[in-house]
Design brief:
With 698 residues, the chain is an alpha+beta fold. Strands 8, 9, 10, 11, 12, 19, 20 and 21 form an 8-stranded mixed sheet that branches. Strands 1, 3, 4, 6, 7, 22 and 24 form a 7-stranded antiparallel sheet that branches. Strands 29, 31, 32, 34 and 35 form a 5-stranded mixed sheet that branches. A hairpin with a 2-residue loop joins β25 and β26.
């Protein structure tokens, strides 16, 4: 007798059922004779076939979810991204240049300020701190760095201050308007406080940030004690040291974010103290006649930036020493630093921010020693404590997590819309010799205004499933460096959210250069080729750490090809005409949605025609025409495909009355829209750029 085998090629209910019936018919004829539709045997066969069908379906789905190309479930693609070391980005915050202005009063004549009545009293010049918030009414932006109205230049040495005299009706100067340019980001800074207990500590400890729309974690600091009532100042989060002391002399530990916990170095900066009188190393005397060694290299605590040292120099004509104040000038210098207090971040499947620390513990050689013998012991201690992957916070400490929320497409705003100050952090010293000091300080604060001099740029929503699939496809081969143009495309997506990111970008090799074309979104969600200089510089600076030495990077604005559609259809009289027209417009607009396409992606018009024909109520698609809109409210870029020549009278269906743009000759391109690598298609105005003509038959 042959073996009772069921074919393993069966994959559906009918195949399984038929196989079981065949076996029963051949090997169990007595049972088969009683297999009527109402019998218990028929019921059992149906149950077994259904079980086989369900198991086959779930096995197929499980196998499907293990392949990048066939996976459909979002969580499966996220798991593959994490497994392959892809740091999945979330929303990107838009950056915008803001202009801050205020009125500075004149010197009061006769006071000890030794100023002229027609000159501004800069003692009233405000100092606006980072974290100050501005709003359009719906979107909040935050100041990225401190703004000092007393300084003509910014921290990069660029002049960014304008002084304008303000006159009354008689032409006399009554005050001066000071204007300063600064950078703001579409986010809000928040702080999460957590007491570290023994129950929390375990290797690769995870902390979930209890907030939504978290775009970045800027800093984590840990202070000794569990009953701390005073929150840290904002500047304390940005001290460029792993271990330092706060204003009260209490020890603080800062954790830095890295791409991978295996990273052993970070790029920080070292600050030198120099004086206006000479370079580092100058010998100055203190009041006791001894050499004062206050001029040395040190790692910067933020609150020492404005420090002035009162030193003493020898008087050549008299005995003793004359006091002289030397203002300290700080010189920033980059330096690679060893790192053990570190963390990484990743997003859960529902876009919650998760912070992951290393598995190690603190050891007795916490500070890196200078002596070679001690350094060897330090390295051995690190191996025993396993802090190469980072260390955990200590029990009995309080952890403060500084993070930002916001970003997204909504953060792209128009010029002159950011006019509300909703969270002001300001200092005005004032002039204590002025009789109206308090009154003038209030006037300076009340006169403060803000506006954005240009549209914001770089705001972007979280990546779609297809975008993550695309990033993952080229991330594995990149190996954290940029060799091919695909590597550059993948790496641009990893730019931290606070530095902005283009909505779409394309990378090509052109004349032995790496050329990056970018497109952003405006405040209405339309494509814009406005390229923010700040974002472009951020892209260039970020890629400098990954590009090949001989690669030259150039960043340009991409092209926007605005399209309009005209459709003519026959519809069923039983359907409402307005509903059918609305469905056609929605279908075309969604098919061309810029969030579903990339730069340089071709459009298959035949697929769109097929989808229109499938709509309920559509009997026949007569024609579909596409026009390239140029000028006025549209982009000035034109498609490279040929247009229909109006002088060719024998072209069937040519529309001489259509004046919305040039009709693209789809026949010449086999009903395809060909896109260049630096361009992208867009329907700008849904309600006017899609025209549907409806016909019915009597």
């Amino acid at each position: 007798m042959a073996e009772n085998n069921i074919s393993y090629l069966n994959r559906n209910f009918d195949d399984y059922k038929q196989s079981i019936i065949n076996i029963a018919k051949i090997y169990y004829p007595d049972v088969f004779a009683n297999l009527s539709d109402a019998s218990i045997g028929a019921w059992l066969i149906d149950v077994l076939a259904d079980m086989g069908d369900a198991l086959s379906y779930h096995i197929d789905r499980s196998v499907q979810e293990t392949s990048l190309d066939s996976a459909k479930v979002f969580s499966s693609i996220m798991d593959m991204a994490r497994t392959n070391g892809l740091h999945i980005p979330y929303k990107k915050a838009a950056l915008v240049e803001v202009e801050l202005s205020c009125d500075i009063p004149l010197y009061e004549q006769g006071n000890s300020g030794n100023g002229d009545i027609s000159e501004p009293d800069e003692k009233y010049a405000p100092y606006i701190k980072r974290g100050t918030q501005f709003s359009t009414g719906s979107v909040t932006f935050e100041l990225m760095a401190d703004v000092d109205f007393k300084e003509q230049f910014d921290e990069n040495g660029i002049s960014n201050r304008q002084v304008i005299p303000k006159r009354n009706s008689n032409g006399n100067i009554i005050s001066y308007t000071y204007k300063k340019l600064a950078l703001a980001s579409s986010c809000q800074t928040k702080v999460m406080k957590m007491v570290v207990t023994s129950n929390d500590l375990k290797p690769f400890m995870e902390v979930l940030v209890n907030d939504s729309e978290v775009i970045s974690v800027d800093s984590i600091i840990v202070k000794e004690g569990t009953n701390i009532n005073t929150d840290p100042l904002l500047n304390e989060y940005f001290v460029d040291e792993e271990e330092y002391k706060d204003r009260k002399g209490m020890p603080v530990t800062r954790f830095f974010e890295v791409d991978n916990l295996i990273d052993q170095y970070r790029f920080g900066y070292e600050v030198q103290k120099t004086t206006s009188g000479g370079p580092i190393g100058d010998t100055l005397m203190n009041s006791g006649g001894n050499k004062d060694v206050k001029f040395h290299n040190y790692y910067n605590p933020v609150w020492e930036v404005s420090e002035k040292i009162d030193a003493y120099e020898q008087d050549e004509t008299q005995e003793g020493y004359n006091a002289k104040s030397y203002p300290v000038r700080l010189v920033a210098r980059g330096k690679w630093k060893r790192l053990k207090h570190k963390f990484i971040t990743e997003y859960t499947d529902d876009w919650k921010m998760k912070i992951i620390f290393g598995p190690g513990i603190e050891n007795q050689y916490g500070n890196i020693p200078d002596k070679s013998k001690d350094f060897t012991q330090y390295q051995m201690s690190r191996m025993m404590a396993n802090d190469y992957l980072g260390v955990l916070p200590r029990v009995g400490t309080t952890m403060y997590i500084l993070y930002r929320v916001g970003g997204g497409n909504i953060s792209n705003i128009a010029t002159d819309t950011l006019t509300n100050i909703i969270g002001l952090n300001i200092e005005v010293d004032g002039n204590i010799c002025d009789n109206n000091n308090d009154f003038k300080i209030r006037n300076v604060i009340d006169s403060l205004k803000v506006t954005n001099t240009s549209p914001s740029y770089g705001g972007k929503d979280e990546p779609t499933t297809e975008e993550i699939r695309y990033m993952l496809k080229y991330n594995t081969a990149a190996q954290n460096r940029c060799v091919t143009v695909k590597d550059y495309q993948s790496k641009i997506n990893d730019i931290p959210a606070k530095f902005g990111c283009p909505f779409r970008h394309s990378v090509i090799e052109e004349n032995n250069k790496i050329v990056i074309y970018t497109l952003g979104l405006d405040y209405e969600g339309h494509l814009t080729n406005f390229l923010s200089e700040t974002v472009a510089e951020n892209i260039r600076e970020y890629l400098s750490n990954y590009k090949m030495v001989n690669d030259f990077i150039e960043i340009k604005s991409g092209k926007i090809i605005n399209l309009s559609f005209k459709v003519k259809v026959y519809i069923d009289k039983a359907y409402d005409k307005s509903d059918v027209v609305k469905n056609i417009i929605d279908l075309i607009y969604n098919y061309m949605d810029i969030r579903r396409h990339l730069m340089g992606e071709d459009i298959f018009v035949g697929d769109l025609q097929k989808e229109i024909s499938k709509l309920d109520g559509v009997i026949n698609l007569v024609y579909l025409k596409i026009y390239n809109n140029v000028g006025e409210n549209y982009s000035h870029d034109t498609i490279t495909q040929p247009f229909i020549d109006p002088t060719v009278c024998n072209y069937e269906g040519y529309d001489e009355t259509m004046d919305v743009g040039n009709e693209i000759d789809l026949r010449e391109s086999d009903y395809m829209l060909f896109s260049e690598a630096n361009s992208m298609f867009e329907i700008k105005f849904k309600n006017t750029d899609i025209v549907v003509e409806v016909m019915t038959r009597n």
